Amino acid sequence: MRKLKLIILFLVSLSLVPLIVSCAGGKTYESTGEHLDDSVITSKVKASILGDSKLKVSQIGVETFKGVVQLSGFVNSKEAATRAVDLARRVKGVKQVNNSLIVK
């Protein structure tokens, strides 16, 4: 009976290994925790842009990967693009901001 319990425990342990390994991140993919952190950063950047009367959040796309924010879309002026980058940089957790905004 004890041997059977050990075998079952061993098999259960083996089945948990893929679950634990799949939560780890790498260079090209995020861990579960990083994904959640990046989702929060993206939301905060969007809220910051939405709160600025000079910017239109519907024209600016925000994506985050491992703390690096990518801004894309169209803005009306170079000043608006600079303002969006500045707002994104102020958000806690942002490591870098890549500006791909295009002035119309």
Question: Which helices and strands occur, and which strands form pairs?
Answer:
Blueprint: H1 2-22, H2 32-50, E1 60-65, E2 68-75, H3 78-89, E3 96-103
Parallel strand pairs: 2-3
Antiparallel strand pairs: 1-2
- How much helix, percentage-wise, in residues? 40-55%
Largest sheet: 3 strands, mixed
Parts with pLDDT < 50 across at least 5 consecutive residues: none
**Rg from C-alpha positions?**
21 Å
- What is the arithmetic mean of pLDDT? 84
Question: Taking strands numbered 1, 2, ... along the chain, how are they ordered across the largest sheet?
Answer: 1-2-3
User: What is the string of helix and strand elements?
Assistant: HHEEHE
Query: In what range is the share of β-strand residues?
Result: 15-25%
Shape label: rod-shaped
Our count of helices gives: 3
What structural class do you assign from the helix and strand content? alpha+beta
What's the end-to-end separation, in Å?
75 Å
**What's the total count of β strands?**
3
Describe the 3D structure.
The protein has 104 residues and is an alpha+beta fold. It has 3 helices and 3 strands, in the order H-H-E-E-H-E. The chain has helices at 2-22, 32-50, 78-89, and strands spanning 60-65, 68-75, 96-103. It has a 3-stranded mixed β-sheet. The longest helix is centred in the first third of the chain and has 21 residues, at 2-22. The termini are far apart. The mean pLDDT is 84.
What are the salient characteristics of this protein?
about 100 residues; alpha+beta
